[in-house]
Amino acid sequence: MPFRALMLSKTDAGQSADFVELTEADLMEGDVTVRVAASTVNFKDGLAITGKGPVVRRWPMIPGADFAGEVTASTSPDWAPGDKVILNGWGCCETHYGGYAGMARVPGGWLVPLPSAFTLDQAMAIGTAGYTAARCVLALERFGLMPEAGPVLVTGAAGGVGSIAIVLLAAKGYTVIASTGRVSEADYLKGLGASDIIDRAELSEKARPLGKESWAGAVDAVGSHTLANVLSRTRYGGVVAACGLAQGLDLPATVAPFILRNVTLAGVDSVYVAKPDRLDAWEMLAETLDTAKLDALSKTIAFDDVVAAAHDIMAGKVRGRLIVDIDG
Prior knowledge:
By secondary structure, the chain is an alpha/beta fold. It has 9 helices and 15 strands. Strand 14, helix 9 and strand 15 form a beta-alpha-beta unit. The mean pLDDT is 96.
C-alpha cells in the first residue's frame, strides 16, 4: 500500500521539502518494518528541514529523528508484528530515512519497546528532546548531584529538552531555576515545577573565568557563551550536563571552574546511545514523568504542518513539545 512521506531533496538550486507517495519497496534496509503513528519536531529536525545545519548527509532524505508505531513485519528475533515501538536517533534524518513517513524500516537494534505508562502519542511528546532530558538528569545523578546540594539550572527552559528536564528534576525533589528568553513563559515554567526564572540575557554574553556560585548543577541545551556562564557560576563540586547547541557549537570558557571549583562537565548524547542506556532513560521517564504535565506541555499538529513547525522551532517560537500525527 502506498503511503505519504516528506522528502528532502538537494540540487544546485538549493534544498526542497516535498510530500511524496512511496511504497514499502522504497524504504531503506532493515529487519523491522513499522507503521508510523506519530513523530515529533526536534531542533535537529528544524535544522534538517530548513537547511540551517549540516544534518542531512544522504540525499534525498526523509527527515524525522523520532517515530513511534506498530511493527508490521520483522525478521529480528526481538520484535514481532503488533509490537509497539519507539525510535530515537540512530542517524534517522541524517543517513537513514526517518519518521516523517507512513512507514519506516530500520534495524531492530535501533528500537525500544513502548513503556506501558505511555501512549504512542505521549512517547512522541517525549521524543528525542525528552529522552535527552532524562539522560541529562541521570548524568547529574551518576556524578553524585543530589537535591540537597542546591538548585539546578535549566537553560533553554521553554524548549523541549528544558520543559521535560524541569518536570523530571522537580519530581525528583530538586529546586529548579529556569533560564529563558521568553519571560512571558514564566507561569508556564513555574507550572512545570520551576521555582525561579532568570532571563537568558544574564547568561548569553562573554563569561568571566569564575562568577558568583549560583547553582549546584545544570542541564544546558544552549552551548556557547551560555554554557560558559553556567560553568563559571556553578558551585564547588557541581555537575553540568550539556546536550545542545542552540546558541552555538563553541565553548568560550576557561579551565577555572574545573580546576578551582572541581566542576564536572558531563556530555550527553542521544543519537548513538547503547540500548541498555536507552532503556534506563525510558524506564526513568515511565517512573518519574507526570503524564498530566506532559500532556500540558505538548500539542498535536497535522503532518501537513511539519515544515512550518520546523521553521518555527528554529525561530524560537515553539514552546514545549510537538506531536506530529502521521497516520491521522
